[in-house]
Design a protein that fits this description.
242 residues; mainly alpha; 5 helices
Length: 242
């Protein structure tokens, strides 16, 4: 196949644009902000799950506290009733004596229940503190994520502009190259890990970085300038350095 030296050099420029595009796309996909955001989102989700679990636990403990308060109220009600009866002095001596014994038992029971109530209240306070801490952690992580999202979008905007510039320059260069040569270049590039053309510098193919033997170099040197050369190893279009 024949191609003008101008077309051959243009294909080399197009290869450069393609390498730039591949590099920019890889950079966009591996921005450090992306990994940082993913890591922080895992932490944020964990904090959210722990907060939800704590809120569920708080709801259960509050019901337990309500039951404890009800138990205390019932005992206090009985104590008030018995104290009222005892204060009235009405009733048989034996009955009044029984009331005194019952009051002692009820007050003991009240103390026990109030200790339980206090312990539950302390648990409620502890859970509330845990929820508050988790909420603060969520808010802090959300702020970090938001800032990283902004940094990521800014970086992607810059990369996008560079990609657009490379695409425009590539399109302009492609328009000046023969369709047959471009078709060959694209075919080779698709089957050669993105490399369709490379410079021949000295005795080395810059596509596969292998050294050509003397016989091959002599054969290439004897060819006309518009004769298309292919690397025997990687099969890419070799553009001779003139």
């Amino acid at each position: 196949m024949k191609a003008t030296t101008s077309d051959q050099r243009s294909v080399l420029d197009i290869q450069s644009f393609d390498f730039i595009t591949t590099s920019l796309n890889a950079k966009a996909a591996t921005l450090p902000e992306i990994a940082a955001i993913a890591s922080l989102k895992i932490k944020a989700n964990n904090a959210r799950d722990l907060r939800i679990a704590a809120e569920t636990e708080l709801s259960d403990v509050k019901r337990e506290l309500n039951r404890a308060e009800t138990d205390v109220e019932q005992v206090v009600s009985r104590i008030t009733r018995d104290e009222t009866r005892l204060a009235s002095g009405t009733g048989a001596a034996k009955e009044l004596e029984q009331l005194q014994h019952e009051l002692i038992s009820l007050n003991n029971r009240r103390s026990e229940l109030e200790e339980v109530e206090l312990e539950i209240m302390m648990r409620v306070d502890g859970i509330k503190e845990r929820i508050k801490s988790l909420q603060e952690e969520e808010a802090s992580l959300a702020l970090e994520i938001a800032n990283l999202e902004i940094a990521k979008e800014n970086a992607l905007t810059v990369i996008g502009a560079d990609l657009s510039a490379a695409a425009q320059e590539r399109a302009k260069t492609v328009s000046s190259v023969s369709p047959e040569l471009m078709a060959l270049y694209e075919k080779i590039r698709a089957s050669n890990n993105g490399t369709g053309a490379a410079a021949l510098v000295g005795n080395q193919c810059k596509g596969c970085h292998l050294t050509l033997n003397t016989n091959e170099l002599q054969r290439i040197a004897a060819l006309a300038e518009d004769e298309l050369v292919r690397c025997e190893e990687c099969r890419c279009i070799l553009v001779r350095d003139k």
